[in-house]
Amino acid sequence: MEIQQLVRGLKSKNNSKIVLFVADGLGGLPLEPGGPTELEAAQTPNLDALAKRSVLGLMHPIAPGITPGSGPGHLGLFGYDPVKYLIGRGALEATGVGFKLEANDVAIRCNFCTLDAKGNITDRRAGRIPTDESAPLARKLRQVSIPGVEVFVEPVQEHRFVVVFRGEGLGDRVADTDPQKTGVPPLAPKASDDQSQKTAEVAQEFLAQAGKMLADEPKANGLTMRGFSKKPGLATYEETYGLRAAAIAVYPMYKGLAQLVGMDVVGKAKSLDEEIDVLEKAWDDYDFFFVHFKYTDSRGEDGNFDAKVKATEEFDRVVPRVEALGPTVLAVTGDHSTPAKLASHSWHAVPVLIASDTCRFDHCQAFSEREARCGELGQFEAVYLMPLLLAHADRLEKFGA
Fold first, then answer.
1. Is residue 15 part of a domain?
2. 113-141 residues labelled b (16+ CB within 10 A) or e (exposed)
3. Is residue 177 part of a domain?
4. Residue 123 lies in a domain
5. How far apart are CA 203 and CA 91, in angstroms?
6. Quick count: other Cβ atoms within 10 Å of Cβ 13?
7. How big is the chain by its Cα radius of gyration, in Å?
8. Domain tally for the chain?
């Protein structure tokens, strides 16, 4: 029996409030042996004070040694086995921007990129082109026409946009065209089964037409495709945990994932402070709140150690506002590690903190990777986080006689 099925049979309801406060890509690495990680280098007085009255540990988003994408990383946080429930990035992004996926749709998360005269990628994110520049380019790609297939294109944010193919006989087993490095051309879309061959051919035609439309752009003169996927079917938070759940996020992908597990996306926050404003206003309406902060991840992906430190400090600054609401359980963690040293997601375990009146305090004095190694929670896989939060909120009945 998987842990989610076990929890589903033990769930109970009360008036407790749970907050899951996620700094995306929180975990890091020192730039040199013996040095601090980004979290350890940051000035985080509020998180450190919270750590002294909490329990800490290190969490593996998937399993030791496995580097997660953002989708699997968040699924694990939400208590869904990310190996069993495979959700592609395309479906997450499409749902996040409010696109209603149908059964035969294949959604793809796309990035604008910059190509040199030889067609090699010089910037995988087109300089993180601002949304007010990228959105018109995405809408321009709605002119692509492919016989027998409806094509939808929706802007997302910065360099990101979504493409949806709708038609009969489309599979979603198509490999990404992003080579994950510069100095080489984008890859061709390749199907891994017969049903997806048509999708690969449609994607290739889309890329060909889009490439001509973007050829004269100074930054976004190319694109890559990632996360070919269809709409999944997942049990909701209400069904699984008995929770009325709310999601507060700025980036569409995280809103999309939250919606797929039955959370209500509340507010239209565009900054961390506005997210906490939304949290305060929605406090009486929900039992569980997922609050997402993106920039610890994106600064790590940029390879900018100092910028990730500053983003961590920004995250720390609003912690007192969350605490002031009096959550029964407050958890602080990340969905994965994104060390600036690697400029990418990594397999390293993520520090996690749980604050509640039922904690067996472990005497950790700060919120950091080093302190978390000595914490009461030890090391565990992310799918066990939700049962821990429910237990601390007194929302799980005893198992057995």
1. yes
2. bbbeeeeebbbbbbbbbebebbbebbeeb
3. yes
4. yes
5. 16
6. 11
7. 21
8. 2
Same structural domain for residues 246 and 175?
Answer: no
| DSSP H or E segment with residue 153 | strand 150-157
Choosing from 181, 213, 229, the residue where a domain stops is 229
- Tell whether 118 and 182 lie within a shared domain: yes
Residues 73 and 112 in one domain: no
- Host H or E run for residue 197: helix 197-214
Length of the chain: 401
Residue 298 lies in a domain: yes
Helices 70-77 & 385-392 angle (0-180, nearest 10): 30
Q: Going residue by residue through the chain (401 aa), what tens digit of pLDDT does each one get? A: 689 999 999 999 999 999 999 999 999 999 999 999 999 999 999 999 999 999 999 999 999 999 999 889 999 999 999 998 888 889 888 988 889 898 889 999 999 999 999 999 999 999 999 999 999 999 999 999 999 999 999 999 899 999 999 999 999 999 999 999 999 999 999 999 998 999 999 999 999 999 999 999 999 999 999 999 998 878 899 999 999 999 999 988 899 889 889 999 999 999 999 999 999 999 999 999 999 999 999 999 999 999 999 999 999 999 999 999 999 999 999 999 999 999 999 999 999 999 999 999 899 999 999 999 999 999 999 999 999 999 999 999 999 98
